[in-house]
Write a structure and sequence with these properties.
Length: 120
Amino acid sequence: MDVRNNHGYSLIEVIIAGLILTVVLIPLVNLQVNINNFVFNVHKFNTALYLAQGKLEEYKSLPYEQVQESPQTIFEDNSTYSYKVAVKKGEFGLKTVTVTVFYKELDSEKGIDLTMERRK
């Protein structure tokens, strides 16, 4: 008389299925963490880009004589970002204005530069 039950899974099959599931899920969890970090860093970069563009727009609206360099300054609205403005005088009355926005990403400070030329 055969006493075996062929309707269920053996313990070995369940353990192997659990191991396969673990081997597949661990890299997926790591991938999710890396994607979240990437999205967070992209958000910081886009915010810095938006702030730099806004600062350039401010300098576009200033009279030519008031376009001057600015030391590194913290943004009033967003204290985690700071900016610096460099102005170089060129030929034919051109001024090259470079706005650099600084922000922290993980343990390092990053920066983004936007440049425009302004004439009299």
